[in-house]
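can u do me a favor
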């Protein structure tokens, strides 16, 4: 089992708990070289891996400062991690992701946010991972960018959730994270039902309940690039219904209808 371990409290907790669960763990630390001394953070992870019987790998994925830093760092990180690597995101991270996705107009999958199979700590809170580190005498790396209000996620964390808690009179992050779990369960059911629809069969697609038809189209187009947006899916459904003969599918591709069948064509 590969665990992405930055050296923060959440990822150190993941390393410890994975080992306690009997897993053979490899801790991978990815250095984005964004701040002076960042290479020393690998030493924190190396020491923790040694203490808890895990293998250790140090990787470098340099990212330059500038716009969309979080997204670019995430892409660089996942590019050097194995596709099945686990991360230490918590329920707090999940709740933040839900609200950020909501701001971007995400659909059901965006509101389900992170998959628990890749993020096994989604039922733990940030305060619990910190408490575990304190109990074990682990000193986590403190990333100063986590306090920088220039990043939208940090504003959600430090400004929006405290305001929501005050308005609701309760811990809203816990509620949002739980809703994401429920939405994820329902999304997986819809995916299962949608898998019975042949998205290249125009008549079948047009006759299907629209929620399932949308998911069938999205799943059909996604392997050819990024998941399509809602407007693209609707254009393809218009072709299936006979309202159009072709539609822009994004990425320089088109969807066409011939003899009652849909096909993807480049250019």
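np, heres the sequence
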């Amino acid at each position: 089992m590969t665990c992405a371990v930055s050296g923060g409290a959440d990822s150190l907790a993941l390393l410890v708990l994975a080992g306690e669960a009997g897993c053979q763990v490899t801790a991978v630390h990815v250095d984005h070289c964004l701040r002076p001394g960042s290479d020393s953070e690998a030493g924190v992870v190396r020491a923790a891996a040694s203490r808890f019987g895990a293998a250790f790998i140090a990787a470098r994925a340099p990212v330059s400062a500038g716009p969309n830093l979080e997204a670019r760092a995430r892409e660089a990180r996942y590019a050097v991690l194995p596709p099945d690597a686990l991360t230490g995101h918590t329920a707090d991270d999940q709740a933040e992701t839900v609200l950020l996705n909501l701001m971007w107009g995400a659909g059901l999958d965006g509101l389900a946010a992170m998959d628990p199979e890749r993020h096994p700590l989604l039922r733990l809170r940030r305060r619990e991972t910190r408490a575990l580190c304190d109990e074990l005498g682990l000193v986590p790396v403190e990333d100063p960018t986590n306090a920088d209000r220039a990043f939208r996620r940090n504003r959600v964390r430090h400004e929006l959730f405290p305001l929501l808690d005050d308005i609701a009179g309760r811990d809203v992050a816990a509620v949002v994270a739980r809703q994401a779990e429920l939405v994820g369960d329902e999304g997986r059911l819809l995916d299962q039902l949608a898998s019975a629809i042949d998205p290249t069969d125009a008549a079948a697609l047009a006759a299907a309940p629209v929620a399932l038809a949308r998911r069938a189209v999205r799943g059909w187009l996604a392997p050819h690039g990024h998941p399509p947006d809602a407007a693209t899916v609707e254009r393809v459904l218009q072709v299936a219904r006979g309202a159009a003969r072709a539609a822009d599918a994004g990425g320089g591709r088109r969807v066409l209808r011939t003899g009652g069948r849909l096909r993807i064509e480049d250019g």
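The beta strands are 2-4, 26-31, 55-60, 246-250, 253-258, 261-266. hope that helps!!
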